[in-house]
């Protein structure tokens, strides 16, 4: 439905955490999960390649990138089978973690899983730190993780205030494992989640001068 090179041209203004390298990682994960779960790989590949195509518009003050991306996908794929275009658009419209409709089709659930898995593990930590650097955020808040959890409270605090990679771990990354849909993604997610837990506790020890050295 769309080639990698054609899709690459649509991400020229992407930020470091959502650039075309992210798209390709999501594509590889989606293909891996889709093959194991019996998905329509043509629809899934197109959805993965186009899932963040409207994110630059969101940074400029545009609408939700998932909904806008679904509409952009309809335009990019015009001329293909209308039913397959709608399958791609539906997957893109429902892939967002923090809000939006829940994914219904198998392909939509797999795209959601692949996108969330790329926010987990070592690459998820690297992306969180890259975003923090681009936004001029501190690497670590001036408190331990347990103190930060208490300060944020059950509702997760206010994202408009101070934000660091540790906030991102507590408010989003630590919650991704429970939000995975497919058995294949859940297996991958368990290992990535465990790595993140170890990393942030180790980082806390080093920040506080209490590492094992």
Q: Which second-level CATH architecture of the largest domain applies?
A: Orthogonal Bundle
Main sheet attributes: strand count, strand direction, barrel closure: none
What series of H and E elements makes up the topology?
HHHHHHHHHHH
Structural class: mainly alpha
The chain-level mean pLDDT equals 89
Query: What fraction strand?
Result: under 5%
Folded structure, characterized:
By secondary structure, this protein is an all-alpha fold. The protein has 2 domains: 1-97, Hypothetical protein af1432 (Orthogonal Bundle), CATH 1.10.3210.10; 119-213, Methane Monooxygenase Hydroxylase, Chain G, domain 1 (Up-down Bundle). The chain is built from 11 helices and no strands. The N and C termini lie far apart (54 Å). The model has no long low-confidence stretch (mean pLDDT 89).
Q: Any chance you could write out the topology, listing elements then pairs?
A:
Elements: H1 4-8, H2 20-37, H3 41-50, H4 55-59, H5 65-76, H6 82-93, H7 106-117, H8 121-134, H9 145-152, H10 165-171, H11 183-207
Characteristics:
213 residues, Methane Monooxygenase Hydroxylase, Chain G, domain 1, 2 domains, single chain, mainly alpha, Hypothetical protein af1432, 60% helix
């Amino acid at each position: 439905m769309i080639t990698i090179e054609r899709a690459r041209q649509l991400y020229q203004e992407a930020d470091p955490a959502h650039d075309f390298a992210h798209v390709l990682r999501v594509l590889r994960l989606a293909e891996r999960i889709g093959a194991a779960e019996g998905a329509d790989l043509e629809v899934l590949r197109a959805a993965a390649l186009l899932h963040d195509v409207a994110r630059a518009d969101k940074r400029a003050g545009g609408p939700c990138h998932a909904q806008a991306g679904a509409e952009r996908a309809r335009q990019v794929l015009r001329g293909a089978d209308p039913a397959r275009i709608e399958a791609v658009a539906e997957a893109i419209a429902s892939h967002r973690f923090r809000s939006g409709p829940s994914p219904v089709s198998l392909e939509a659930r797999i795209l959601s899983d692949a996108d969330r898995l790329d926010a987990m593990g070592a690459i998820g930590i690297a992306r969180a730190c890259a975003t923090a650097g681009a936004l001029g955020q501190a690497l670590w808040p001036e408190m331990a993780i347990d103190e930060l959890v208490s300060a944020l409270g059950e509702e997760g605090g206010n994202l408009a205030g101070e934000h660091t990679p540790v906030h991102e771990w507590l408010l989003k990354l630590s919650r991704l494992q429970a939000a995975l849909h497919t058995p294949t993604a859940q297996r991958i997610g368990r290992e990535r989640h465990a790595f993140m837990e170890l990393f942030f506790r180790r980082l806390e020890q080093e920040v506080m001068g209490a590492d094992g050295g």
